[in-house]
Design brief:
Distance between the termini: 20 Å
Number of helices: 0
Number of strands: 9
CATH topology: Immunoglobulin-like
Strand content: over 45%
CATH architecture: Sandwich
CATH superfamily: ApaG domain
Helix content: under 10%
Radius of gyration: 16 Å
Order of helices and strands: EEEEEEEEE
Number of domains: 1
Shape: elongated
């Protein structure tokens, strides 16, 4: 698990390898991840959008941006957590992801970014 705190918002990520399969005549490696966002600050915040950078060992880079996470824009009061599961496909058995969430503070109405720590994606059979 990797964790990072930005402005009182703690982001934790756990990963797992889901398996391999063929799509469009190419082998893909499927990875799942669970993200937990915890408000350790003193003000209520809302997650409004996300930005992900997905890399694989073949030097492929994919940028994913969008509103909320898994169709939601969670509001986190101090002490609250929000968890969700998602996944990605890589063309190789190794890769990594990182990014940020755009959040807004209810106290100041100002937007700010919360870093998503870089985490590795690796198929267990590919490790020495």
């Amino acid at each position: 698990m990797v964790q990072q705190i930005t402005r009182g918002i703690k982001v934790s990520v756990e990963t797992n390898f889901e398996g391999t399969f063929y799509k469009n005549y190419k082998m893909h490696f499927a990875f799942g991840y669970k993200v937990t966002i915890e408000n350790q600050g003193k003000e209520s915040v809302q997650l409004t959008s996300r930005h992900w950078e997905i890399f694989d060992s073949l030097n492929n880079k994919e940028i994913i941006e969008g509103e909320g996470v898994i169709g939601k824009k969670p509001v986190l009061k101090p002490g609250e957590k929000h968890s969700y599961n998602s996944g990605c496909l890589l063309a190789s058995p190794y890769g990594s992801m990182n990014g940020y969430y755009n959040m807004v503070s209810f106290n100041s109405s100002k937007s700010f970014r919360v870093s998503i720590p870089a985490f590795k994606l690796s198929a267990p059979f590919a490790l020495n």
